[in-house]
Amino acid sequence: MKPTRPNANAKRWIAILGCESGIARACAHRWAREGWNLHLASRNKEEASRTAADLALRYGIQAKAWAFDAVDYPTHAGFWKKCAPAPTGVLAAFGTLGDHDRALRDGGAARFILDANFTGAVSILTAVADDFGARKKKRASEPFFIAAISSVAGERGRRSNYLYGSAKAGLTAFLSGLRSRLQPAGIPVLTVIPGFVRTDMTAGVALPPLVTAEPDEVARAIVRSVKKRADVVWVRPVWRLIFLVLRHLPESIFKRLSF
Amino acid sequence: MRNKPIAPWGRFPTCEGVETFPETPRAAAFPAGRFLVRGLARSYGDACVQRRVLSSRKWKRLLAFDQKKGLLTCEAGLSLAEILEYAVPQGWFLPVTPGTKWVSLGGAIASDVHGKNHHAAGSFSRHVAEIELLLPSGEVLRTSPKRRPEVFAATCGGMGLTGVIRSATLKLEKIETAYLSQSVYRAENLAELMALIEARGGEPFTVAWLDVNASGKSMGRGHLITGHWASARELEKAGIPREKWLSVHRPPKFKLPWTLPNFVASLANAVGWKWASWVYHRLPRKYASPSLVHYDPFFYPLDFIDDWNRAYGENGFLQWQCVLPREKSAEGVRLILETCQKAGLHSFVTVLKLFGKGNGYPLSFPMEGYILCLDFNRTERLFPVLDRLDEIVVARGGRIYLAKDARMSARTFAKGYPGLPAFRKIKKALDPEGRLASLQAERLGLVTRRGP
Ligand SMILES: Cc1cc2nc3c(=O)[nH]c(=O)nc-3n(C[C@H](O)[C@H](O)[C@H](O)COP(=O)(O)OP(=O)(O)OC[C@H]3O[C@@H](n4cnc5c(N)ncnc54)[C@H](O)[C@@H]3O)c2cc1C
Ligand SMILES: NC(=O)c1ccc[n+]([C@@H]2O[C@H](COP(=O)([O-])OP(=O)(O)OC[C@H]3O[C@@H](n4cnc5c(N)ncnc54)[C@H](OP(=O)(O)O)[C@@H]3O)[C@@H](O)[C@H]2O)c1
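A: This is the predicted complex of the input protein with flavin-adenine dinucleotide.
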């Protein structure tokens, strides 16, 4: 189970923010299998340590657990500085669907949806981008990367979840701008756009099997896209087609759709 | 969330319900009200059936491994197969294993499972150093044979009723190779078979297969299979290449894609039980020398087909497993076999084994004596016969195995398990509202029928 081939990644670290997400966990397994060391950050440090122990035992890599809260902005810069050995890749996987109906009544709940999906990502990824940009100048050959998980929900605001949707729309736009900013430095930024994924987030929701991915399917796409230095990846790709159509529906019709 | 059929391995009984698969074992993921935690649903009956089920299938993290002592700590949803995939290449094996590797660590503890080495190694829980239990209240409780021993005793064999096992520490057994040196002996009747079993008790692994069809003087004839771990020297001598010495099992070769229609299944069964006699007559009377076999066919002869339970058809099947006190075993086993034959019931696979001492835990099945294990297609006429078999067992101070049971009465249960009052007390302390319950626990009066 431990990597047998000579390991090119033996000294490299990736930081996974929101590491207890189903998708993040599947990514962690894939990266660990390839010999990467991992910083695992979660609001729940105890859970993160359990995941770290598992990955270290299975794949013979090093893994460290960190406490990280996406909505606690003042801690972000400090967290990133502490995160040593310094990572060369980051995946922001945190996010929350929230309770849309409650959020319509409760401003705090609405804010939390926006913060946990968008503002938090802006805060931490800006710190990461500054750091990567500076380090890349000294170590040009090092394959730095930034990846974050957005959602098809960000492609168009829908009646049933437009708070989450608008936060993800913001995230997608932010990542697109960040990508452009880091382009001259040669640091790729990957936007991951999943449709439905079978994780805790969607537990209790009846998902249509044809367009629903398993967490590992998303992880495979992420790991592969990072390697290819891709800009955007849709999982499953059919969602791209679906939203090509949905995006072009005139607003006069779209506003009548109740989904 | 839509209801789906919740079925056990024997496909009887089933109910409509919802099974959830949270990523991690935590109280926030508990279903509201009454629910059951389950692993790979290899229990034959309603021990793993409830309308709301919390599945441990995704709880697969390894938490610590002490390479010197062989102490492995991991989450309860890890299967024994996955534990072997991790441990065997490093020279470690399960200290006790049931007849299939597709059971979860949590399920193995909750049923306090036994293997072919019970007479030598005791049941599974003897090798469990610590359990981390998640109570319905959300509290986490660590228990071991020394720490809160009464909770430990009630949890091992406690059928998921004392709390959700989050993780456990298991003491593995050191092996030099993944192979066993196996011997097979033939016996012409029950007395001969039992004498053989007693005579070969020095071997760490023993199990006997009975030909249930033989009657009269040949009643109870069968084969005894014994084994012990083979040394590297034995493998070298036999010319087995070194890279295979600690090789892991392979995935199942076949998969039954559908459940067989009932009439095909009953037809197959009507002829199929004859295989025991057929095999019996094909195998030689004396076996020249021991042979080397890999652990997979030795311990898990049925695992090469995935989902073989589908071969029994939509109606499903029942397994009935009892243990009889040693001094009552010979007469009891004979009476059970006679009763089945008179009723025209034929068991497909019939196993006889001698257990060592039990551990005295309130719901743990093993006690010193012989176990007999039978399995039958589910038909209406089966049930009254099984009731008679129950009577034979409890009248002799024996008991029925909860992991296989789907129909015994609350009275049979209470008579067989004298530790029941002690268990109730602990259940009350750990789960005062009675939230954790299987349909079996409801049927046997371990909790009230109506949950919170
Ligand atoms: C082919 C075959 C051969 C077998 N051979 C043997 C044998 O040789 N010896 C033997 O002893 N048994 C044997 N069994 C029975 C099997 O070992 C037990 O039924 C075992 O409990 C199944 O484990 P599971 O993970 O499938 O548990 P499930 O069937 O899912 O659950 C079994 C019980 O364990 C409880 N449980 C499961 N997970 C947890 C948890 N995390 N926390 C608390 N409680 C939990 C459940 O509530 C339930 O009461 C065999 C079964 C099969 C199908
Ligand atoms: N599942 C889908 O259908 C789907 C579809 C499209 C996009 N996505 C996106 O994919 C990403 C991963 O989600 P998932 O499906 O894997 O769901 P998940 O298992 O529910 O994971 C979400 C993770 O986000 C973390 N999180 C939430 N708020 C946080 C905060 N303030 N600070 C730090 N971490 C926080 C949670 O951490 P805790 O463990 O601490 O709660 C949780 O581990 C999310 O961004 C989600 O929006 C999911």
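The first helix of chain B runs from residue 80 to 87. Chain B has three domains: 4-57+422-443, 62-174, 179-407.
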